[in-house]
Amino acid sequence: EPIRLADYRPPVCEFEEISLDFVLDPDVTTVTSRLKVKTRSGAPETLALDGRELTLKSIKIDDRPLGRDEFQVDREHLTLIDVPSTCLIEIVTTIAPRLNSALMGLYLSNGIYCTQCEAEGFRRITYFLDRPDVMTRYKVRIEADLASCPVLLSNGNPVGGGKLANGRHFALWEDPFRKPAYLFALVAGDLACLEDHHVTRSGRRVALKLYADSAAIDQCAHAMDSLKRSMRWDEDAYGLEYDLDLFQIVGVGDFNFGAMENKGLNIFNTSALLARTDTSTDGDFQQVERIVAHEYFHNWSGDRVTCRDWFQLTLKEGLTVFRDQQFSSDMHSAAVKRIADVMLLRETQFAEDAGPLAHPIRPESYVEINNFYTRTVYEKGAEVVRMLHTLLGAELFRKGIDLYFARHDGSAVTCEDFVQAMADVSGRDLRRFMRWYSQAGTPEVRVTREFDSSTGSLTLEFTQSTPPTPGQQAKLPLHIPIRVGLVGRDGQALPLQLAGENAKGETARVLELTEERQSFTFVGLDAAPVPSILRGFSAPVRLRSDLTKDDLLHLLKHDEDAFNRWEAAQSLAAEAIVQAIRMSPQRQPVPDADLIQAYSRLLEGSIEQDHAFVARTLSLPGRSFIAQQLSVIDVDAMHRVFKTFQETIGRELEAPLLAAYRSMARIDDGSTRTAAMAARTLKNAALAYLVIGQPAKFEPLAVSQYRQSSMMTDRLSALRILAEIDGAAGASLLEDFYGRWQNEPLVVNKWFALQAGIEDYKSPERVEALMQHPAFTLANPNRVRALLGTFSMANLIGFHREDGAGYRLLADKVIELDSKNAQVAARLLTTFGRWRRFDLHRQQMMKSQLERILAVPGLSRDSYEIASKSLG
Ligand code: ARG
Ligand code: ZN
Fold this sequence. Notes:
Keywords: Aminopeptidase, Hydrolase, Metal-binding, Metalloprotease, Protease, Zinc. By secondary structure, the chain is of the alpha+beta class. Helices cover 41% and strands 21% of the residues.
């Protein structure tokens, strides 16, 4: 049943060209496909075309209709026997977009026809060799009703169109670039358009068109601005220009994930496209900017050079995530961006890597490829690319990228091809590095130090090991770049000199681990410095060091590496929290005085600093990061400890928090400039601490912020904290919020998510009640994620309530959703995979829900794979 990387075979034939004709209708859309076929052997071949949920009307080869005995059709294929070595195949099928609830292939979203073909959606449109190494030139004709579908779009360039009888019209599109079927796109509907243009650095003018529902078109300006900056950035940073005269983006409300990089016609979830300060938070603005950039960057890393097969997914995704990270870090604060990315990696990818669904960034087998669009393939994949950047340095890395694109433009390649280009430009041996592609699990790096005062030398001894993961018991040592520095006793950054070198060098350098155990000796030191290790998080590993609390406080104060200053604060807080959880409930958990004092210093110094950095550094580590450090997750103790820590910090730091709140409010000019967003981040972090610390005293401050601000960031932060403390104002303001924004679907999602995330023991009932709300529907993935995704992933004590109500609720909905939209159902189901991390009672309950799901007749491949692997 699983598909294996080792079984890869090239396709039996090529399609030089495809002409696709769509006659659109919600219930019966007719698709005529004409394929110019050439077999690779030059001899007749049997051809098994992929197809799912298609109604076959007719087949012709070279204009001759085939009889019933000349082909076979089953649930997944159309098999043609003895296809001539060169011929023209014409296939007519019908599909029903209105009934398509899987949102793969051609479907309707609020009356707009749109497509999603990655990974294997094209086969729900017509019979085809639906695999990324089959690259074809596309000619498309779209015919539809003129009144309901005035806009008809596909990839490439518009080359004609006109009116037809009966109120219909048509449009013709041609894409000059060969592409795999997963990059095909079609959109038709009544859409408003925002237009602009970009002049490339070689002087070509590219028309930019952004399409959305007319009610939302005034929320597209930020996406357009982000697109223009992305185009410029890719030219400046990588010398990569856009290659067509037209670039289009369409936003639709029903979409299985964020967005899709179809050639010349990106299709976006509105949640990744729309932004206006009264309806979207600063986080949304940054997310829109990032995703617009990500999809645009795919034009080269994905479209021009694509993947040979789906096992290579990280080839395009890891690289493109790395590129979008670089872009965001150039646009805003590099330190804050790195911190955010590392938090995400550690909270989600590390958890995945430690669970039953662990897989290498290039998996070796899968049942359903949709299950492999994971944090591992994307985010860890980006870390692997980043390590190449660290090992080679910026200049050689850029040369490697240039070579990769020059060598492979227009083809479908593998991860080896990418790393080979890096090896060729640098002359480096990257064979051991390749293990990152095949080995799953998060490596653990331990480091101990020894200072010899008689010789003035510091020896760092490193060991590395990777815990076993399902199907991979034995692990090999990896090639791990460790960026280090040494911080002197009075805080200065020391120039580094390794034993054997004859002079002091820079204050930071990269050590390379390739063996299980290695040591490095720094010489020329007067006194024992504090080592700053894994600066910038130079490798996706768990670092265990022998740094003491005093060392960490020293780093927090003095390290020139901002990431490691933040990391020091996180380690101090994490240590204190984990200790408090272990001794709870015998003793009242309190954060220690040194940590509070460090926070206080940070707040006082915050006027001159990067305010978003201060806010991040003052924030307690995420729940999931802490949970990973516990042998058994005690949800009640965790909840108690986090709450007490927040209360204590809020009370003890009242004065500096309030001062920060006020000064940030003055800096905040209501714009979305980086500095204003940073000020709001710190302002709202301070507000949360103040209100949690002294609810009665500071509730009015939150209420007035909610009432007076016109910005969603401020409103939502205030509302969240008010709802959480469950005071006098929370309930009525929640109602006020819904009343104001009930016609903005994306804001209604926030309203659902906010309530699903309120951590208390009543939340299963609250979520149950919200599912009865008229605005709730299982048909919209964003709404499902807002309510059920938030509840199951971000509401520890509610979801894991000890009577199992949360588990039952989620399983009920997964089962209901599975037959409609398997991809979204399977995604929701992944939380159950964490069952081994809880106490026996909860383990039993989670397992029995997984078993219940597995027993559902006709369960999708998607959910089957997740549930069965989760049970292990
Ligand atoms: N390629 C898209 C992106 O990363 C995501 C496609 C996700 N597809 C899926 N089947 N989950 O931009
Ligand atoms: Zn992507």
